[in-house]
Amino acid sequence: MKRISILGSTGSIGTQTLEVVRQNGDIQVTALAAGSNIEKLEEQIREFRPALACVWQEEKAAELRVRTADLPVRIVSGMEGLIEAAAEPSADLTVTAVVGMIGIRPTIAAMEAGKDIALANKETLVTAGHIIMPLAQKLGVRILPVDSEHSAIFQCLHGENQNPASRILLTASGGPFRGRTREQMRGIQVEDALKHPNWTMGAKITIDSSTMVNKGLEVMEARWLFDVDFDQIQVVVQPQSVIHSMVEFADGAVMAQLGTPDMKLPIQYALYYPERRYLAGERLDFWSLNQITFEKPDLENFPGLALAYAAGRTGGTMPTVFNAANEYAVREFLNRRISYLEITEMIQAAMERHAPVPDPSVEEILETEAFVYDFLESR
Ligand code: NDP
Ligand code: MG
């Protein structure tokens, strides 16, 4: 029986991971971690019976300890607890589904404890890919992508061991504001930006998808996962979200992975790789689909994508600046303290201000995050 720990179990990816676990019935959950939603976490503990659970705040953890006093679960808190949950000794694999670069240290801890990683938490690879990927190789652990595009690429590369990708064609829906000018996006409210045309996801990634910052993060994620240059990654807007991404090989052949938009497919593929299991759900119906259309990304009105390529090409601490500024700005936008267009303006301002450090350590990455937060707060 496979054993897994899930970081971010109460979120969009976390709950869908547990649905996959529930439907298959042959995975044991050894640890769960959440931010503050102890009601949902308690339900999950009662159903899946992990040995360990973590809540970010100690007060909430204390409350959960009382609520689960009848169960043999140990409740921990804070970064120390999150690291403990990530590295829970009996797990084979850790699903990283927390939001943001808070995932860096637990991901590294899980790898050092010999766990394979089912990676949803893209911010960790964006900021620390130069640490994570060589470490995975050194330790002999797998990094299995959960992000749908990267899972698609991973599936297209399956069995192609000696054949490197000459190009990665990363598909994008274009988000809810595709086709608008910046001027037309000026008055966008939180509610408007939280509506994604094809996917239901957590708040932060939904905002990122609307600004195309998500695609920018995914370009950097692909750079690390598949060891390609930025020139080899092309973003292709495909508004129906049917082609999840494609790979072009030296002979010009293009392999694509298609399907209805359902995150349970890439989650299940990562959990059982290389096995494909039955997954209930809608199948693609090409007659009702009728057509799949393609567009170039609009870099002028969606500067987040161009800034991501620039940050990725500069490298060092610059991707951290891009990511940290975005995390900060999205939180401010969701709290209604800044306007929608200020999200990418803040990213640009932070990048212009920063003198990048090459090959940063985890400490330097976290210092850079703090620098960005200070800079944006004092603006
Ligand atoms: P959600 O916001 O839905 O869920 C986030 C999870 O992280 C929740 O369980 C939350 O707990 C938990 N969390 C937040 N802060 C902490 C903390 N300090 N310590 C421990 N746990 C914490 O996010 P998503 O599931 O949408 O996204 C998760 C990651 O997966 C992101 O990196 C995203 O980019 C990536 N991803 C998501 C996709 C999707 O379809 N949703 C698709 C591809 C990638 P609580 O509920 O208590 O707040
Ligand atoms: Mg994605």
Record keyword descriptors for this entry:
379 residues, alpha/beta, seven-stranded parallel sheet, four-stranded mixed sheet, 46% helix, binds NADPH dihydro-nicotinamide-adenine-dinucleotide phosphate, binds magnesium ion
3D structure, described in words:
The mean pLDDT is 97. 46% of the residues lie in helices and 15% in strands. The strands form 2 sheets. Strands 4-3-2-1-5-6-7 form a 7-stranded parallel β-sheet, sandwiched between helices. Helix 2 links the parallel strand 2 and strand 3. The chain contains 16 helices and 11 strands. It is of the alpha/beta class and 379 residues long. The structure holds NADPH dihydro-nicotinamide-adenine-dinucleotide phosphate (NDP) and magnesium ion (MG). Magnesium ion binds at residues 147-149, 218.
